[in-house]
Design goal:
The complex is a heterodimer of chains A (575) and B (185). With 575 residues, chain A is α+β, with helices and mostly antiparallel strands. Chain A has 15 helices and 26 strands. In chain A, the strands form seven sheets. In chain A, strands 16-15-23-22-21-17-18 form a seven-stranded mixed beta sheet, sandwiched between helices. In chain A, strands 1, 2, 3, 4, 5 and 6 form a six-stranded mixed beta sheet that branches. In chain B, a hairpin with a 2-residue loop joins strand 4 and strand 5. In chain B, helix 2 runs antiparallel to helix 3, helix 3 crosses helix 4 and helix 6 packs across helix 7. The chains are: A alpha+beta (575), B alpha+beta (185).
Amino acid sequence: MSSPTPTITINGVRRPFSPGQTILQVANAAGVEVPQYCYHDGLSVVASCRICLCEVWSPNPRTGALEPFMGGKLVPSCQQTASDGMVVHTDSPKAVANQKAVMEYLLINHPLDCPVCDQSGECFLQDYSYQYGRGVSRFQEEKVKQPKKDLGNHVLLYSDRCIMCTRCVRFTREVTGTGELMVMGRGNKEEIDVFPGIPINNELSGNVIDLCPVGALLDKDFLFQQRVWYLKETPSIDPITASGDNIWIHHNEGKIHRVKPRENPRVNKWWITDEVRYGWKFVHSADRLGAPARKQYGYPAQSDFPRAYEIAVAGLRRAVEDGGRVALLASPMIACEEAYLLAQVVREIDREAVLAVGPVPVKGSDRVYPPGASEDDPRAFKVHAEKAPNARGVRRVLEALAGPGQVLDFEAFLRAMGKGTGSSGVRAALVTGNYPSAWTTPELLGCLGGKFIVAIDTLAGPHVDAADISLPAATFAEKSGTFENARGMIQSFERALTAFEGARPEGQIAFDLLHLIACGGEYERAGATRPEVYDAADIRSRMAAEHETLGVFASAVGHPAPRPQARPDMRLVEI
Amino acid sequence: MAWITKNSAGMKIEKRSEPYLSETLKARFRSEILPRYETSMGALLPTLHAVQHEHGWLPHQALMEIADFLSLTPAEVIDTASFYEEYWLRPKGKRLIAVCRSIACEFCGQPEITEAIKARLGIDVGETTDDGEWTLVEVECLGSCDSAPVMLVDEKLHEWLTPAEAVKRLDEKPIGSASSHGLHG
């Protein structure tokens, strides 16, 4: 008897499925845990690890009676497509016996070096050994010893920890199409390796480290840096390219230790580029600005926020009083909400303020992996040449305030600044940065001369030194907000770290300035009132309420998917 | 426990200026091998055979040239070549002795045959004589259990051997020039 939606029964519970799904995919989607090493949603199926083998019964098409499928042999659930009426057991004595046998077999040559292994704590072999393995080893012979290998700029291979699932090999052949990795030899001498002298240095090489279910492929950058159980994870968005790749920031005690891809089938699938993976270093740069500064006798002198704010507001106001314009250069590295608030600051002082988007760095051209794939291919991965996360979002917000076509790009901004300080010329500017590296150009420095400049930036640089007031800002990891990627998807990210000491998010600086302006520009007069606290979600709803064109910030923002709560592996004992 | 390391990424392979895949060879592969296969991956095994036949073994440089010729990556080529024991990734002697060590031959006296050949040539299994003439290996079943014990010298199968007989067979003249390159297809 077949129902309209086909179903299979896994461990006694009926699960609907769509035709073409494998048993394992149905189980994974339903949250039924089936151990698996070699299977990965993004890669081809090889069914080589054998731990997902299950006992399957299927109805005889003539009689409808359940009969052992494939003559009662255990079936690799990752490879077997589900068919209506199948009854699958992953916890039957036969299936469990296989799981135990596979675990024992895999552990024969696996070194017992978990205490010094980076994967320890997030290792499939550890987890499954605990859940499906046995506590003791019957193996008394010598283990095979294989070398530790240097495979490339980012990747180390501890060969003797490898369980030969070949996920990494399939990744280099199917996803990047570069094919650097291979299986050398056969049988118990099998090893993953590269061709001698041809390293794995493709743009996506770091992903093989994530793919490795055990501690064989390791990240040179993260090697021996931190035990993974100390790490906290915060969902974030790629902060340095226009891809909008979803990432996890793994951090502890105020320091980022690594960045991992966060699965999103509509954006980055399961992968990120090495550029994004290792692109967070500027957050902990030695050049971070840690205190406001004001120019005295031509040189920057350390100041404090209240004093710097007062001078900033007074300077901006004076420019307007003298008949000039105020400009905002909103960097494409800041969040949409912050651009909105900063634009409000300058428009509060000058209704006709010039709004411009900062320089959008471009490096090379867009690339699609595997080479030759179409961009719309569901398996293709695109690397963006545009190296700014939010050029579109900042423009969208500024245009909502100034009107379409009224927002200048960086070139037009330089021209507008260069027109001189005469009537209706720009006499003061609020310049934001937050780029991962120095970005001052001679043209920028030239056009800032002779004007009142407030620089809000994260890293030191010539234009920050030249500014009348400089305010230390916070990087993407230290605030929340939204970025709009190259495909027009608006995605939110969360705060991972408290802001670098002395620095504040641009959004908070904007609120502080707005508060000060409302108080007449003097802190003394603020009395008991306090500036609002920057909260990206609040500002998004405010943006959507205040401007019809910004309605997308209420309706179309992609938020990080909540992580399914991990099941505790200890039984609760009531005392 | 010794800490074994290998700098795979930074290794230098031996190179010679003259290519292993000469233009004549390539032309021959194009007309004889490639048309028989739908994909270049399919043509890999016979190409490896042919190159090994030509040079006696498969140096890394030859593997890179094959990869280039078939539009594969060098890693894919060495992946395949290292799977089969019959492809030689290190030099071997001009002539190859392959003694079968599978169960039938072992029961019928293979260990003594191996010992006799080792004594005669003064080498161990897996080694090559100093003059570069002989390489001795033990292999799995040669498919001739009914005439065990057997060994293969180049391409000739020697059956129903005794230790003395096995040593005597080494003095036989090699058949043709092709046989001086050991196992091939």
